[in-house]
Amino acid sequence: MNKITRRQALSATAGALTALGLAGATAHAAVTGSRTAAPTTPAGTVDEVYQGRRIRIVPASGGGNDHGGHHGGHQSPGQPTVLIDGRELHVMRNADGSWISVINHYETFSGPLPLARAAVRELQGATLVPMGGM
Fold this sequence. Notes:
The protein is an alpha+beta fold. About 30% of the residues lie in helices and about 20% in strands. The chain is built from two helices and six strands, in the order αββββββα. The strands form two sheets. A four-stranded antiparallel β-sheet has the order 1-2-3-4, covered by helices on one side. A two-stranded antiparallel ribbon has the order 5-6. The longest helix has 27 residues, at about 5-30. The radius of gyration is 16 Å and the shape is globular. The termini are far apart.
């Protein structure tokens, strides 16, 4: 009998939950006729409202001028820019491919979008404070 590690089980669960979330969002958009991204959004860019907060994710290769007001320079080269209500959420990709943020640095996520959604939930309506804004 094959045994799986806790990390493998959590990773599989996170992947399944992400797939369910995407399926639910697609079904909701089909029923309500809403769209989460504008038709002119560059490929790979995410622009959605989640629990009343605007999440925007711009891939690192998305060109230098369309970062939604990103000026911080906190991201490592090759990292996407993740914005919540126009404020940058510092994110980092781990060696195993999982993602963490300054909001959820003890919990890993399968990608920037699930990470941003978890940050919105964790913020509970509070404003995201920039890394250098303390």
